[in-house]
Fold these 3 entries.
Entry 1:
Amino acid sequence: MEVKRIPVILDGDPGHDDAIAWMLAQASPLLDIRAVTSACGNQTIEKTTYNALRICTLLGITAPVAKGRPAPLLEKPMNAPSVHGQSGLDGPVLPEPAMDLSELPAVELMARVLRESSEPVTLVVTGPQTNAAALLLAHPELKEKIARISIMGGGISHGNWTPAAEFNILADPEAADIVFRSGIPVIMSGLDVTEQALIFPKDFERIRAVGNRVARIVADWLEFFYEFHRNIGYAGAPLHDPVAVVSLIRPDLLQTKPMCVEIETRGEYCRGATVGHDRKRANALVNLGIDRDGFADLLVEAVKTYGEDER
Ligand code: BDR
Ligand code: CA
């Protein structure tokens, strides 16, 4: 029986964990990638866009790729070279882009995909939510065409870039505020769950042993990404962004709770915090736990779907 695939737009700031999230998405027979859009976050928009093109070339993603907005809605860009390196995706050598960038900016490509789709499309947002918010501001008439927004961002119990705020939300809190208030169902994979999505060195080796080019590159990405985290006390690489894809393809691996999540946009100490509670109607399904071993197995199975050079 033919499986009905979920149409998705992948929007991220790759980034090692964004790249692995896209690997998982491309490997899944449940997802139909309609567009890929870059966000300013881990690195400048020029660098994340170049990385997006290289990743799509590596993975055999043929959907159009468009460049996102160069800066958050209000603030100056905030980048994370300490985590992802100067290129935003340091580590293994990647193929040069084999496709051209779309002539449309990300928001207009997203709008075109939504307009042309006969069914609502899911956005998978693994960087700051600038493009998604700009889309909602520029094309409110297309809101009905967005089925869900599955984001990696925030943390109910803590932050990582500040005690209260996680990087993707802190980089553009106004954008996150627009997304969470939009009325569109949000699936939130914050630090509560993504810091449990730990991939250990023994898992890197299982992935590498699969033996194809994507497997080797994913193992190298994991090693690079882990180095930063090892130095600050993690026992493995916290694969934040892939959890936003797991939410769509293997929700059985996750423990969730519906919550009202509000974004702190003003506080001196808490700007960018995701305040989760039950005093108002829930606007998000918040992932709070993950079957770690099941997640590691899912990654190993995903890399097996790739051939020696490409999919
Ligand atoms: C998030 O920040 C980025 O560095 C990662 O790609 C992930 O999206 C984790 O806080
Ligand atoms: Ca990211």
Entry 2:
Amino acid sequence: MARISAGVATSHIPAIGATIDNGKTGEPYWAPVFAGYDWSKQWIAEEKPDVVIIVYNDHASAFDMRIIPTFAIGCADRYGICDEGWGPRPVPEVIGHADLAWHIAQSLILDEFDMTIINEMDVDHGLTVPLSLMFGQPEAWPVKVIPIAVNVVTYPPPSGNRCWQLGEAIARAVASFPEDLNVQVWGTGGMSHQLQGPRAGLINAEWDNRFLDLMSTNDGETLRTIPHIEYLRETGSEGIEMVMWLIMRGALGRMVKPLHRHYHVPASNTAVGHLILRPAESSSSEV
Ligand code: DHB
Ligand code: FE
């Protein structure tokens, strides 16, 4: 059977992608950001997941105001690279796992999550920067990817509670796939950041660290009730990206074991946060 072996959360700041692509990761401003991913790179090289379900948001790169899916699942064999800002990154195309993706789509929809099914899509920094942070600069990405795109760009985004429930439904879907696959779920975006207006550059390290604390404990469920307005007030207009972390966290179940944590301020306009969690029920052989 397929199983979810771990969850990863990470910011997906586009300037991180540009820094990697331009060979500047050793610069003093950036070195501490990347140092927090050294452990993660080594860990994932040993974990060797077959498939990663990457929960991310498109930033008006592939979608625009004509179509705004709340929750979308990529069921394609491959995804091209696109981006805003610096433009498409020079990274390998992203290879999908259509069989598992269609299975998850069916399971979610019959489980009453009305997903948008996407068969053709390019992916932006929301998905490619986490891949680069975890895998560096390989010729080809060493995992298959199932993109789950969440609307957090145009009001109204989904609630944290609904995101958590979607994570639980993803876990049920993966557990009912008959092939033996090591699957990870990644939640991307965050942490506190605001990119425009008088509060541009807002960072709330205290709030971010409380969020990281709760994500890492068996009390993570309390995060389900944070209202949109709290993300907006406390973490800036783009802090709402953190609801995507709750999809990953919901997929792991109540009990988790934290394996790694990193927090650094600032990177571009944004606080960098990163967590690696193990679902506790499946970790008995690990520790
Ligand atoms: C920045 C962060 C983001 O998450 C994003 O999508 C775009 C820009 C930033 O910090 O510059
Ligand atoms: Fe973003």
Entry 3:
Amino acid sequence: MSDSIPAIVLNNGVRIPQLGFGTYKLPAEDTRDLVLRAFEAGYRHVDTAQMYRNERAVGEAVAASGIPRAELFVTSKLNNAFHAHDDALAAFDRTLDELQLEVVDLFLVHWPLPALGRYTEAWAALEEVYRSGRARAIGVSNFQPDHLRRVLDAGTVVPAVNQVEVHPWFGNEEVRAFGREHGIVTEAWSPLGRGRVLDEPTLARIAEGHGRTPAQVVLRWHVQRGDVVFPKSATPSRIVENARVFDFELEPDEMAAITGLDRGERTGSHPDEENRTDR
Ligand code: NAD
């Protein structure tokens, strides 16, 4: 099963499994077991964050899985309170400690917090972490083209990824295009629009034609667009279902119909407006 999840090569040569397991708001007491379920279902990539307060449970699942460390891909993210250089370095140390890992595969600045104006400082700290070898790749999350331009100007490492909201109701095309032009892979967060897009009749029609579920059709759409996805589910049967998206293909007209559902509707904050540092 894990063999069937393709890898995408990041701009520094590191390979990331195109499909992973999202962990935001999984029930805390079940997180370890659900990540283990995902590994059993073939997932080899897990997305966590300091903000989710579940790095320890994710690390416990990694340790308990028995899967060689080199076969797993673990992402975490710098929390909003820690953009100051020394705070970022200390927070990264805590991430490794919580995960009980010596190296994380990908570490991201979670939000740009433009009103605070310190994301290039946070990025400089992540570059130090990268050079130390304790993160195999570094990137950003929720960065608009303006924020990315500043990072490209001020920094020396091009972010490997930009993790942003993308789903059929919110194609986020401008940000995706900027990434394509600069060798920054787009990771689509809330790929299912937190489940809200799944009742679209267009998805039901396409799903029926392929003998699939609407969730599988949406995930397949992301995959064929070349983005990385990590759907979240606390339901074991859905965890399995969401990984079975590499054995069918959507036709160009089906891809276009799903892209056409875009109504500019976010489920989360606009990156220019998210300025909370207390989470
Ligand atoms: P998602 O789009 O993955 O939707 C999850 C919800 O969809 C589930 O809670 C469930 O209600 C439903 N669902 C899942 N599988 C289903 C299925 N097969 N059939 C029917 N319904 C199904 O939403 P998400 O959790 O917000 O996003 C995924 C991951 O992205 C997160 O867990 C997290 O890792 C990441 N994320 C990152 C940021 C960021 O700021 N960087 C923000 C939000 C999410």
